[in-house]
Amino acid sequence: MCHKLDVGCQVKEGIGSVVQNQFESLAREIGESAAEGLHAVSTFWITIDAPSTTTGDPLVPIRFLQSGTWFIVLALAVVSVILGGIRMAWESHGEPVRDLLRSLLTLALVTGMGSMTIQLLTSASDAFALWLVNASLPAGATFESQLGKLVANTVARGIGASGLAGECP
Question: Is the pLDDT of residue 105 over 70?
Fold first, then answer.
């Protein structure tokens, strides 16, 4: 505190007060901008729609996946048929034929049900992620408010106005 007649001290305190107010305003603006950016970065993955394999042209993603894996599936099917034939010749009875038919039927079933299973699992994981974020919040709080508190506390403790002005807290 300055004496009322000490003009130099009054000017110094006035300038210091203006500078401190500007730094506090700047810190608040930085905190708000950081909160908005952090919110966008931390929640963008929740609001992105998952690609659908059941609407529009469902064959586009399926054809893409099949074009990259058909040769592997075909090679494994050929190997299983050859091994089934070898077992049948070795054991001289029909049990390996039943095993071979069972495995080829399983291959056809998995190939046909694959896209539906992927779609169901994708939808379930999206719903679980949204539930997990909402369940982690206190009752009545929004993600934005909690994120704002986190950023405000970080700014206040880290580079608050007194830290920017060069004073020790």
Answer: yes
Round to whole Å and give the CA distance between 5 and 13. Answer: 13
Q: How confident is the model at residue 156 (pLDDT cuts 50, 70, 90)?
A: low
Q: Which of 162, 168, 161 is nearest to 25 (CA)?
A: 161
Gyration radius (Cα) of the chain, Å: 33
Contact 109, 132 (CB under 8 A): no
The number of residues making up the chain comes to: 169
- pLDDT tens readout for residues 2-22: 777 777 777 777 787 777 878
The residue assigned the tokens 């049990």 is: 95
For 166, left (φ over 0), alpha (ψ -120 to 50), or beta?
left
Q: Which of 57, 39, 58, 55 is nearest to 47 (CA)?
A: 39
Tokens 């058909």 correspond to what residue? 70
Residue 95, Cα to own-chain centre: how many angstroms?
A: 49
Exposure string of 105-142, with b = 16+ CB inside 10 Å and e = fewer, is eeeeeeeeeebeebbeeeeeebeeeeeeeeeeeeeeee
**Nearest alpha carbon to residue 25 among 151, 164, 168:** 164
Q: Report the chain's terminal Cα–Cα distance, integer Å.
A: 19
